[in-house]
Amino acid sequence: MKGNGPLAGIRIIEVGHMLAGPYCGLLLADMGAELIKVEPPEGDIARKVSPHFIGPHNAYFASLNRNKKSVVLDLASSEGRAQLQSLAATSHALITNLRPSAIKKLGLTYASLKECNPKIVCVALTGYGLEGPYSEAPAYDYVIQALTGVMALTGDPSSPPTKAGYSAVDNSAGIMAAMGLLAKIVEGRGGQVDVAMYDVMMSQLNYLAGASLNAGETVERLANSSHPYMVPAQIFPTKDGWLTLFITHDKFWQKFCTEIGRPEWASDPVFATMAARRENRSRVLAAIGEVLMQAGAAEWVRRLAPLGIVVSEVGTLAQALEGDLAKSRDLVVPLGDAKSGLRAVGAPVKFDGFSPGYGMPPLLDEHHQEVLGKAIA
C-alpha cells in the first residue's frame, strides 16, 4: 500500500466464494483493510472458473481477490471452527456469502462468534435473507434478475427477456454488504448484518417500483434501451455504429435541434418540451432516427459533445479498457510487479493522500502460518 489507507488497522475475515462476497472483500482491501480469505481445502471455486490462467493464477479469481491473505480452514471440523474463532477474536468483521444453513452450521453468525468477540460485525450476504421462508432457496445472479423483473425490463420488446451483460446482482450486493459492514464498524457495536441479493435489486428498481406502487404503471421494455420518461434518451443506429443520446433539459434539446439542422423542432409543439416529446414518442424518435442515419456515430459525438449534450458511441469493453478515459482514471493496473502479466480494473473509490497498492491474488493457503500464528499468539 502507498500510505495507510482509510481502513488501515481494520481486520476482516472473508468466508466467501465466486463473486458477491469476494467483491465486497476486494473493495475493503483496496481501502487498506487486512482481508483474510478463509478457504475450504479445495479452495474457492473461483480459482477454477475461468479457462484463462496467467501462470498459477486464474483470471477470474485474480479479478476479485488481490490484496488478500489466503488461509485454508476445514470449518466442518472442530479444529477448523476453533481456528476461526481465534481469528474472529482479533478481527473487526466477517463477510460470508454461503447458503444460510451453511452459515449457521459453520458458526459464521454473530450469535456464534459474539462470545469470543462481542464487537465483531458479521455480514451474511445471501439470496433471500438469513431467515425466512425463502432463505434456503437457491439464488444466483441470473435467478434474482428473473425474479425481480430486471430481465423483463431489459432488452428489445420483440426479443426474449434479457439479463444484464455483467453480474449486476452479485456486484451490487457486494457493495451493499460493504456499506452495511462499515456502518456497524462506525457505530462501534458488534452485530449481525443481513444483506439479501433480492432486497438489493428491488431497492435499485426505486423509481420504476414507485411508478408501479403509486400510479399502477405497467413498466415494460422499450425499443433501443429507451428511458421510460425522457425522450430522446436511448441508443440510435447511425450510418456507422450505434449512438447513445440522452437529452434531459429543453435547453439541450434546442442546441441539438440547431446543430442537426432542424431548428424548427425547438418551437414545434410536438417536439418542443420534454412532456410533448414523451407524449409523441414514436413520431419524435422516428424523426430523430432519420436525421442521425445521415452520419456516423463518431461524427455525431464530435459535433454534439462540445455543446454539452450527453452523447457517446456504443463501444466494447476492450475499447473502454484501452481508452483514454480509463487511462486518465488509472483504472487498468498491474497486479504485483509488471512482470506477473496480471492486470485488473483498479479501485473505483479515490482518496486524497492514498493510492492503493495492487498486490497479487494469494495462492491457496499462502498465508496460513503468518495469519494463524498472529491470531493464536
Automatic annotation (TrEMBL):
The keyword Transferase applies. Keywords: Transferase. It comes from the Bacteria. InterPro entries: CoA-transferase_III_domain, CoA-Trfase_fam_III, CoA-Trfase_III_dom3_sf, CoA-Trfase_III_dom_1_sf. GO terms for molecular function: CoA-transferase activity. Signal peptide: none annotated. This is CoA transferase. The lineage of its organism: Bacteria, Pseudomonadati, Pseudomonadota, Betaproteobacteria, Burkholderiales.
